[in-house]
Write a structure and sequence with these properties.
Blueprint: H1 6-15, E1 21-25, H2 28-37, E2 42-46, E3 52-55, H3 61-73, E4 85-89, H4 93-104, H5 125-140, E5 144-147, E6 151-152, E7 155-156, E8 159-162, H6 169-172, E9 179-185, H7 188-196, E10 200-201, E11 203-207, H8 211-220, E12 225-228, E13 244-245, H9 254-260
Length: 275
């Protein structure tokens, strides 16, 4: 472990001839900078995300709402695969928003050392202020604020926005906060197009009772991992975890991280050499 400022220590490590490989988790901007400075070193990048989920008609709304609350607000939303975008068939949107708002407002906010607390302050006041400004921007662009969106007692409240423009920061950038948008779609195909219309592609999810729809989504979604009937926030260590586009260029997870960090060597042995 080498401690120090990111740029000073990072540049020294990236440019050192003693370093054979670099693995980095962080923003696309920093990841691209590392890649450009690394020369011929192997570089493994796990970068940004704005993970989305599609909700098809006819699913168990109560169960989906419970999972959506977990996906959007666990760890204050400061998770690479935190649920940031929800696309739901429009005939179910009103019912979903009523239940989702009620469940979100039942979240226990307070001291992180209290075992009853569900959500507390983000990593810094600066990040909370940024998230609040992004909400204000989205509302000024026509989004509806369903709940939250403000800082109270030093904590950014869990936030739901609806009918958000696709080019609003809360939609197209990584918010990394307890904030989620909910937009209506005419069909699952529309939802797939919305999720794919992103610079990121880490994980996505779909809730559906139709197996053909699930297979179609798994083929069409431009992401590193598709989670069927669960939130894109689902992860276990044995999964090959990693994305496409600006979400990264490699896979993490026990087996897959070892493979990324292994240099393959071919040995050909002729047991019957010519005399």
């Amino acid at each position: 472990m080498v401690t120090g400022s990111g740029k000073t220590v990072g540049d020294a490590l990236v440019e050192s001839e003693s370093v054979r490989m670099i693995t980095f988790t962080g923003s696309p901007e920093v990841g691209k900078g590392i890649r450009d400075k690394a020369g011929l070193k192997k570089v493994s990048l796990e970068l940004g995300s704005n993970a989305g989920v599609i909700i098809d008609k006819g699913v168990n709304m109560e169960a989906v709402v419970e999972k959506a609350v977990t996906g959007a607000f666990s760890n204050q939303g400061q998770v690479c695969i935190s649920l940031q975008r929800i696309y739901i068939v429009k005939e179910q949107m009103e019912e979903f928003l009523v239940q989702f708002k009620a469940a979100t407002e039942r979240i226990v906010i307070g001291d992180p050392l209290d075992g009853m607390t569900d959500l507390s302050a983000m990593i810094s006041q600066k990040e909370q202020t940024r998230a609040e400004s992004w909400v204000q921007e989205a509302v000024s662009e026509g989004a509806a604020l369903i709940t939250g969106g403000t800082i109270e007692n030093g904590i950014f409240r869990p936030t739901i926005l609806a009918n958000v423009r696709r080019n609003s920061k809360v939609s197209c950038m990584e918010v990394f906060a307890p904030l989620v948008i909910v937009n209506p779609i005419d069909s699952v195909e529309d939802g797939i197009r919305e999720i794919n219309d992103s610079d990121f592609g880490l994980q996505a999810g779909i809730f559906t009772n139709d197996i053909s729809t699930a297979f179609s989504a798994s083929r069409s979604l431009e992401v590193g991992g598709v989670i069927i009937n669960d939130i894109p926030t689902f992860r276990v260590d044995q999964m090959p975890y990693g994305g496409v586009k600006e979400s990264g260029n490699s896979k993490e997870g026990l087996k897959y991280a070892i493979e990324e960090m292994t240099e393959m060597k071919l040995v050909v042995w002729n047991h019957n050499p010519l005399q």
